[in-house]
Amino acid sequence: METPKTNEKAPLSRMLPWVIWSLAALFYGYGYFQRVATSVMVEDLMRDFAVGAAVLGNLSAIYYYAYAGMQIPVGVLNDRFGPRRILTAAAFVGGTGTVLFALAPSIELAYAGRLLVGIGVAFAWVSTLKLIGIWFAPHRFATMTGMTLVIGMTGGILAQAPLALAIDEFGWRASLAASSIAAIILAAAIWFVVRDARADVTETQKVKLADVIRDALPVMANMQTWLVAIFGMTTTVVALGFMGLWGVPFLSEIYALDRPSAAAVISSGFVGQAFGGVFLGWLSDTIRRRKPPMIGGLVVMTALFVLVVYGPVLPVPILHAAMFVMGAASAASIVGFATVRENAPSAVSGVTVACINTLLITSGAIMQPTAGLILDAYWDGTVMDGVRVYGLDVWKLAFVPFVAFCAVGVTTTFFVRETHCRPLTEGDTP
Description:
Blueprint (H helix, E strand, L loop, with lengths): L9 H27 L5 H8 L3 H29 L1 H21 L3 H15 L2 H12 L5 H18 L2 H10 L1 H22 L15 H13 L1 H32 L4 H29 L3 H20 L5 H15 L2 H9 L7 H29 L5 E2 L2 E2 L3 H7 L1 H14 L17
Antiparallel strand pairs: 1-2
Helix pairs in contact: 1-4, 1-5, 1-6, 1-7, 1-9, 3-4, 3-5, 3-16, 4-5, 4-9, 6-7, 6-16, 7-12, 7-15, 8-9, 8-12, 11-12, 11-13, 11-15, 11-16, 11-18, 12-14, 13-14, 13-18, 16-17
């Protein structure tokens, strides 16, 4: 008598959502590494390309220009074709851009390399959120988004003290070129592993591009969408504008820290973001409320940023703690993604999240060169080892727009409508 066969594929089937998510999330981590890597290269880039803070701000921000400009197409492509093919191509583009930037003999080619990196990694966040929506239950969306942020912040951490040490040992060009290998490996893994639909879904919905745009218009016309967008943009003012570029040179000059030590302080902020992303996502899902973590996170982040920049010089251990909590509070942005997604029909969730992500990234793209312009405008001409030196008063002026925008964000977040973690259902209007 033949023994009945057991379902040996069940454990693999249970693991598949996690494997798919992890590959997409790792690509997001790679993108975050590239996003903030310039923060530990500020002096090297200024010296090698003979530029000031304004040009360097634009060199870093061109990543964000490309990233932000791609978000609407990314959302539409995800809703129309699914994440697998575009993620694979995106990883190759991102890796190619990294190599071009690392080998660039001129500022123009460096711009081109950063542009390609921004275009490639622009697919990572929205595609990962799209895959979470496919492979995980709705009530776990904020938690999984927080876990994705952990992977991203891990990339950010690697781009701080570890990258600074590698640069001191091998130079910024060799260190950055070596990082492109990760993108190529991920491209192959994504192609062979990621799936755009579950096996238990009998029919994959194929939406027409015109239908996606038509259905997304009411969502984008909804005031709640824009209120959440302003909230998210405020969190990225500090996460991208300060931690993503100007934090390391600020701490190096004002706190007299060497580059690895200053990068280690900023790393504490990224560790905090990783912790805060998981904790605030879990907290929001658990209490079934979105606004308290959003408002609380924004207030704490703003207060600590003001303390670090405008307060007395802090002992280094306290500075680490302040950066950790600041980073954790800024991770409230992931609750905003859950909120706006719950106000959109599922068929256009990708393009809706992409629109919000565009605005979030735009704030970083604006604030980085804005600070650079102010630094150069009030620079007194001091140069040390071929690098411009800015005084404390100039740094404080450069960060005034950051604080002003944070104040706007705190105010507008009070007007966000509480969703109580309930997604929009059929027949509801956003």
